[in-house]
Every structure is written in structure tokens, then in C-alpha cells.
Amino acid sequence: MTDYVRQLPPHQFGQRKRVSEWVRVDLLSLFLISLIATYGLVILMSAVDQNMARVQAQVIRIVVAFSVMVVMAQIPPRLFLRLAPALYLLGLLLLFLVLLVGTESKGATRWLRIGPIGFQPSELMKLALPMVLAWYFHDRRLPPRPRHVGIATLIIAVPVLMIYPQPDLGTSILVAASGLLVLFLAGISWRYIFSLMGLLLVSAPGLWFVMTDYQRGRILTLIDPERDPLGSGWNIIQSMTAIGSGGLFGKGLFNGTQSQLDFLPESRTDFIIAVLAEELGLIGVLALLSLYICLIGRGVVIAVQAQDTFGRLLAASITFTFFVYVFVNIGMVSALLPVVGVPLPLVSYGGTSMLTLFAGFGILMSIHTHRRIAL
Amino acid sequence: MSEPIVLKDHHDESRVFIDRVVMAFACALLLTLLLAGRMLYLQVIQHDRYATISESNRIQVQSIPPVRGLIVDRHGELLADNAPSFSLNLVTEQISSLDETLDRVENRIGLTTEQRSRFERRLRRKQRPYESIPLLHRLSQEDIARISVDQYAMPGVHIEASLVRHYPLSDLVTHAVGSVRRINEDDARVLGKVAYSGTDHVGKTGIERYYESRLLGRVGYQRVETDARGRIMQVLSRTDPVPGENLELTLDAGLQRVASEALGEQRGAIVALDTRTGGILAMVSKPGYDPNPFVTGIDHASYALLRDSIDVPLFNRAIQGQYEPGSTLKPFIGLAGLMMGVTTAEHVIDDPGSFQLPDSERLYRDWNWTREGEGGHGKVDMNRAIYRSCNVYFYGLAVELGIDRIHTHLDLFGFGRNLAHDLPEAGSGLLPSREWKRSVRNLPWYPGDSVNIGIGQGDVLVTPLQLATAVAILANRGRMVTPHLLRDAELSLRPNVDIPDDAWRVISDAMQDVIHRGRRGLGENGTAWAYIGMDIPYRAAGKSGTAQVVGIAQGEEYDDAELDERLRKHAWFVAYAPAEEPQIAVAVLVENGGGGSEVAAPVARKVLDYQMIGNSAIAQRSEHQEPTFARAGAYLD
Fold this sequence. Notes:
The complex is a heterodimer of chains A (about 375) and B (about 625).
Chain A: H1 19-22, H2 27-47, H3 52-74, H4 77-101, E1 103-105, E2 108-114, E3 117-119, H5 121-138, H6 146-163, H7 169-185, H8 190-210, H9 213-223, H10 233-246, H11 257-260, H12 272-305, H13 309-333, H14 352-369
Antiparallel strand pairs in A: 1-2, 2-3
Chain B: H1 10-45, H2 47-54, E1 58-64, E2 71-72, E3 78-90, H3 98-109, H4 113-124, E4 133-136, H5 141-149, E5 157-166, H6 174-177, E6 180-182, H7 185-190, E7 201-203, H8 206-210, H9 212-216, E8 220-226, E9 232-239, E10 247-248, H10 253-263, E11 268-274, E12 280-286, H11 292-296, H12 300-308, H13 317-320, H14 330-339, E13 349-351, E14 354-355, E15 364-365, E16 378-380, H15 382-387, H16 391-412, H17 434-441, H18 447-453, H19 464-475, H20 501-516, H21 529-533, E17 541-547, H22 560-567, E18 570-577, E19 584-590, H23 596-613, H24 615-621
Helix pairs in contact in B: 10-23, 14-16, 14-20, 16-18, 23-24
């Protein structure tokens, strides 16, 4: 690559050394992430019945994830660029191993277990896929030519088709979204975008026949939760009751009857937004949504300020994939979308996806803080 | 730079990228507004509705189990109904300390560790909050009183009445009807969670299992308003359950009773078929067992007693027991000889008492063979070969037919297959063939194998149900029957067996001679005449048989007397009546009974009598006519 820019130590430009010059982090997104995580912890405390052992476990997870984020932020994007294909291939290999020797849990095979350490290769793919696509388009002329769009589609399809049968609809949607976002951002022509949408619309009735009974049930439940009030409708009836009964200001923290009396299933994982909505009301939900939008806005700024194609595409894909998390989760809990297992980012209890999210923000920070200054 | 220079228009690219990012961000904002709007709709506009549901009243959805369908016999007699039973249930949400509550229950009415651990396993399958989980079943009046007195001190403990499967005939029809069992962890994994919410039982064997989906019915539910302690204040809406379908079986409980009594304490099985429909009129397997304790959970000790009994009462001999058919196979072999032109009714052989294959030393004996060489039947034709049950005749015929033709012919009558419609548990027996012997034993078929098949020995195995079915097809002059238990079962059509009239006539006459031929002190008797034929008031056809014991468990320690008893041959008798317009076909097996005509034929006669002349006539006939013809010999076959 033409070396027309040179990286200068930032302190040559300023008089004082700031923290961000020693430790490369983006203070604004760090602040927003901490705010959301703290807000999330308060809700979680209510969702776990103030069981402090659970809260403590979540705090430890957040601290670990935070450290991972800071470490990622120190790695120069150049290294990510160089490692991208290798990471992607490693991800594919591990996904293949899951198909062969994966550990089964709750009816799904998603984990690789080596001794005491469990690992979910699909999580690696959430970052490796946008990375390899950004790498792919980095040296190519944009908007991409049809052949390149074809190859990129293949790069997306392979891991998605490997994750989907685990089965893990939620993760395969997120991985697919992270890849398709790169394609969109790279500027593929509207022809492709509209024909993809058209294809989806046309094949929607056909998809119905491909779906398992279980998935069909979830869609029918979305249309009419009363159809099966004891089975698949139970979750959605209870979560809508929790949200609706919260009203404008909520019933007060720790006072939600739906969540505290165990009516609401999965209240600390995928359905935690219902606890927030019940106890802190619409105001509490809007506060969280605003925080999310601020964080996404910051991600957009970082992406726009990135100085090469790789950085731009990767930063923007990570940012908007984060939004997909938010939209799919809140959409399903409020019965706008069928139920797919996607957690509420930075808030839901559990460590696996949180680690990936923080690592993603680490990469975002790395892109921002390693900018080269034009001479 | 070694790579070809890619012309990248950086300015243009970043413009396109910024366009797209702005577009995506705008989309995200719009979708966020959509989410906010949805929340606004639920939380502000619909707030009152959801607040009522949630705030003051706790709405529960409770399942109402459907009533399981009844099972009745062809005359409407109840074979399986539902009886009220009281159980002790716990709602764990209302209990502060589960262990303490369980201890209290233990103090009041007793609670074994087995019951405790069963409850804990059931608790793990709990689906919804405030679900009522059964701890004890079938409470006595005294138990109910003891709990009720202290119930105020035990919140969350409830006595609930429910309808539980009940089998009024106890062990009489167990093997035909089957039974339900409590749903265990393995069942719960495969059964529909919703369809079985509130239902604790599932059909585990027999008809109860085969027609489970029809008997079950559809679950109903009600929305109830409860107070903070889970007590129902008001029923808001109710969808009634749809009761299960009542099933009418082809069984005749009266005939079943007669058959069971006729077998008495002997081990064995009886299958009686309506030859016109294939409906099973009676299906007895002895010893049986009472299914009622299984319904609410039999204790380990009683179950072990049944399971480990050397008489295997849990085993359904009538459809699963596989035995050599012995001489009951002879009419079918004879028919094969006639139909395939291998022999004729008039063809006569000379029976010296034993049979030898050419170039072989081995002697296949007839049942009346003696060392002195005085045995044998002399001149024998087809008719005499059947009514005297001459082995040598069929040895020769079987060799001439050869296994391939025998296999083709017997296959038509359902040997080696399960023809039954709603008895998937029924065994298919074993009809040997060249291919079978090659694949299982890796040996070629020897003529000597065919010799044994000729008299129903060797490798061939049948169940009592199969034999009764084959006899029914024979009685019908080849019209196919599909054995079944459900009266209005939709049967698939199978091709009939094409039996020429003259061939059928020969076999039918010979089988009638088995029973009717004979006069006191004069002429030659059919093998069964002395035992059942002397006073029979209607025309019947039959054939006796004995089967060598093949199923004895090796290496088990029995005392000598017991061992001898269990090594004795099994007695068979098959029959149908009336001979010309058949209505009923029956197969009787008496394990270790000895001679077929002597032991099994009288049992078959009682079954036929009930069908032909009714119950009252049998009562008159019993006792005062013991067969006196000892001359017929202990080994009449």
C-alpha cells in the first residue's frame, strides 16, 4: 500500500499527555458502554430476585469483557487486516469441528469443549466474518463488481449455513446481518438490494414449507398468542402483560408483579427488557433506547472518520450489527417479531455474547485511536 | 509495489460509504422509533388492559384434562372406565419450605423415600408457575381426613379429585386391552407438552397404546383470576376439553370369561376369531395380571414379583408367544399338496411307522412307532393322514413339496408375518425358507429340514393369534381375514387365498373327522373324538398338535419336579365351527400340557360351545361327562 501517510506519536501534537494517549481507548464510547452496563446491572438485580451471587457473577463477566475490550483496542487495525483471512478460516474449521464433535446442551450443539473450557465458534464468526469481508473489499475498487459481490455472498453463506443447523437461528441471523451490512456499506448497487428483498418476499410462502413445526409455531404465536396459551404463547402473553402493565412510569424497581412472581419466563436472559418495562415503565425503556442510539451514533462517527476501507467497513458493520441485536431482541419481546434467541446487548445475563460484543467495541476503538494523521 | 495498482477513487468511495452509513443510521433511527412506538402502544394506549390483567388480579391459565375414552366389548360391557381417585398435590409457589412440608405430610400419613424422589423428579418437569404437582395418589378416606384437619397449617397442600383409569375386569382382559401408566421422564420427552398438560397417564400397552390419540381427547383450559395465594376467585373464560373417543372392541367379555375359566390354572393362551370379520372375540393369556396397580404406580416389590415370576405373567402369550405349531400345521401342508398337484386325495401310502430319506440312515418316527416295528398306520390317504395325524404321510409329502413351495403356500395364510391390524406388538413367528437359513445359519437347506416342517416341527414358529388367523382363512375357503380388536377398524384389503373347492372339501372333511369320526368300540376314531366329539351337538372341524418345548430358560435352578413339568410338550388344538358356515375359529395352546386332543381340545370345545349354543347349555353339560376312552392313549397327537 502506498505509504503516503505516516503515523506520528500523538504527543507531538499536544502539550500534555492524556490518558487516551497511553492507553488507546475511545473515552466517549467507553462512557456510554459503562452507563448501559450499569443500567443493565440494576435491572438484572431485580430480574434475579436480588440474588447477589448472580449479580456478582455478571459483574465479574463485565470486568473480564471490559479487559478484553481494552486489550483489543491496543492492537493496531493493520494486524486485524493481516489476520482477517486466517481468523475466518479458523472460524470455519472450528464450526466444522462443532458439527463433528460438538457438545450438546439443551437440544442444540453449539459448543466445543476442551477440558474445562467451553467455546462457541459461532461467536468468533460474528467478528471474523465482517473482518474478512472488509479485508476482501479493502484493496478492491468500490462499489464492488458483480463477481466480487458473488464471492462475498459465498463468504457469508458458508458460516451462516453451518451455524443455522446447530440449531441457532438467532446467531445465524446476527452473523448473516454482520456480513450483509458490509456488502451494503461497500456500496453494492440497489439492484442487488432490491432483488434480494424481492426474492425474500417471493420465497416467503415457500419458506413456510421449509420451516420446522417449531418455527411455524413461533410465527403463528406472533400472529395470535392466544392460539396456544399454555405452550409457545405463554412467554409472549406474559411478556406483553409485563410491558403493558408497566405504564408510563413503571411499578417501581423490584416491584414488578409479573417478573417477581415468576410469571415471566427467561426474565434474566432474553426477556429482560420486559422486566425493565414493567418496573421502570416507558420512561425507563426510552432511556435505554436513547443510550443505545448514542452508542450507535458514536460508532457511526468512528466509522465515518476511519481512514481506509477496511476500518470503515468493519467499524460500521460492528456498529449496525449491535443495532440488529437491540432491534431483534426488543422486537421479539414486544411481539413485533417471532421469538428468536437473541439477547439484549450489554444487559442480558450470560457471558458468551457479551464477550463478543465488548471485543467488537475494542476493535472499534482500535480503528479510531490508530488513525494516521495526514502530513 | 509488486501488486498491480488498483485504481481506487478514494474520494468517490468515501462519498458512497458515507451515503450508505447515513442511510443505515437513518434506518436504525426509524426502527428505533418503531420500537418506541410499540412500547408506547403497549405501555400507554393498552396500559389499562394489561394493568387489569397483571396488577390486582393474577390471571392463570389452567389446563382441564379431557376424560379418557371408555373401552367396551361388543355387547357394551365396560372393559376400561374412569374412577374417581383422590391425590395429594403441592403448589410449590405457596410453600415456603418444601422439605418442612414434605416432613409434615410424612408425619400425618406416611411418605416413602421412593415417593419423595418420584415427586422431586416430577417437579423438575414443571412447566408453569402455580402448577399443581401430585405427591401421593389414591388417598384413603382416612388419609384425606388426617390431611384436611391440619390443612390450614400447610399452605400449598391440596387434595384433588381426579378421574383415573380403572379396569373393572381386573386381570381378565389385561393382555387384550392393555393399560395406561403414569407418564415418566422418558414419556414426557416425546409427548406433546400441551396435549398432556393436566393428564398424568398415557396408554402404554395394547389397545390403550395403539389408539392413544383417539382415547386421549383434547385438553381444555380456563383463565382464572386468583388471589395472592393462588386460590381461584373467578373463572374468566373456559374452553371445554373434548373427551376422548369411546372405543367398542370386537371382544366378547362373556366368551373371554369362558375361555379363561376353561384354561383354569394352566399356563397358555387362547385366541378366538370371528371368521366373517376377523374381529378377535377372545384373547386370553395365562397367567394374567391385574393392571389397576400399574395405573397410579406400582411399588417396586410387587412389580419385581411380577417381572421375575417364572410364569412371566406380563408376557402376552396369545400374540407374542412363539411356539412350534406341531401337527396343527398338517392340514395346511395337505392343502398345499393338493393345490400344487403334488398329491391327490386318493393317493395312498404305506406307513411302516417310520420314514427315511433316500441315502440316509436317519429314522423319522411316527407317533405310534415301536422298537419292534409293529407301529405304523398301514395304508394311509390324505383323509386318514389328517384325522389320525399320520406323521409319515406328511414327512413324504413335505419332501415332495420342497421348502420353496411350502414357504409360498404358508405365506398366503400369514405364517411368518404379523397380519393383525391394531396389534403392532404381535410377533410374526418364523416361516423358514432357503434364504432365511442361508442368512441366519449360513447353511444350505437340507431335505431333512423339510421333513420336520411337514409335521410343524423344526424351525417353524407361530403365535396363537397367527394359528387362529390361518385356521379362519382356511375355514373361509380362502377368504382373507385381518385380525383386529377395534370393532369399526378400517382394514386394508389383502388378497384372498385361491383354494379350489374339491381340495378344500378334502381338508375340511378330514378336519371334521378329527372330531366327529368314531363310534364307541367300533371303527377308527378321529384323534379328538374321544375327548370332545362324542356328544358335540353341531358340526365342527379341528386339528390337534403338540409342540416340543423350545423356550425353556437354560441354567436356571428349578427343583426336579418343576423341571419335568416345564419340559413337557405344549398342547395345541385349533378348530372352527360350524363346519359349513363357519363363524368362529379358535386356537388353544396349553403350555406343558401334553397331548393336544386330551388337554387343549376340551378347552377349545368350551369356547366353541359358548359361541354355538350359548352359556346356559355349557353349564348343563359340564361335570357329568368325563371322557372315558382311555384306549385313545396318552400320546395321541
